[in-house]
Amino acid sequence: MLLQHNGATPKIDPTARIAPNAVLCGEVTIGANSSIGFGAVLTAESGPITVGGNCFIMDTATIRGLKRNPVRIGENVLVGPRAYLTGCEVEDNAFLATGATVFNGARIGARATVRINGIVHIRTALPPDAVVPLSWIAVGDPVEILPPNEHERIWAIQRELDFPKYVFGIEGRPPLGKVVSEVMPRYARALQAHKADRLL
User: Is pTM beyond 0.70 here?
Assistant: First the structure.
């Protein structure tokens, strides 16, 4: 399904394959010989998504482009099923396995691997050839790659990355409930723009 969003339409190389129930919404560009799998969603929410050549975005992956953080995926990249990428950059020959999550402002270096259910946190720079093991978390710049039971260390780094301010523009690190109560009405209003999307 191809949708026009905010006046922008997907641009697909004629050699690319798009599964019939994949969704490409807005300013999405798909390179030569790339494949978008069944149930995948690529939505240029407020910023563009560019997928290079010879990439495979597998079934049910979700990719969101943002105004401050467009998505750029290089050449020969695999994005596994159930992966979630938002506002990030992925360099050539990277491998993002099933359930990988890459957040706003993150950069994945060339030939890097994020294994099953691995996480690359906001504003994190994963260098070329790095490996995030199964269910581990990469956080910071310079990066630390930590197991999930290292919560205190992860939080110490993550706190300085200031998720509420960087992603939602909320100052002062309020409790999560306050962040949600401030952000959700604004975010819901912004998503109303999708009411005007046009099926192509």
Answer: yes
The residues, any chain, with a CB within 8 Å of residue 60's CB and separated by 6 or more, are 37, 38, 39, 40, 81, 82
- d(C-alpha 193, C-alpha 175), whole Å: 29
- How many structural domains compose the chain? 1
**What number of helices (H) and strands (E) belong to the chain?**
3, 24
Can you give the CATH number for the domain in which 29 is found? 2.160.10.10
Query: How many CB atoms are closer than 10 A to CB 192?
Result: 8
The domain of 134 spans 2-199
> Alpha-carbon torsion 89, 141, 139, 158, what sign?
negative
Each residue of 150-172: pLDDT tens digit?
999 999 998 888 888 888 887 76
Find out whether 134 and 128 touch, Cβ atoms under 8 Å: no
CB burial readout 128-163, b (16+ within 10 A) else e? eebebbeebbbbbbebebbeeebeeebeebbeebeb
Which residue has 């953080």 as its token pair?
69
Q: Are strands 89-90 and 28-30 parallel, antiparallel or unpaired?
A: unpaired
Which amino acid does the sequence have at 175?
Answer: P
pLDDT in tens, 66-111: 999 999 999 999 999 999 999 999 999 999 999 999 999 999 999 9
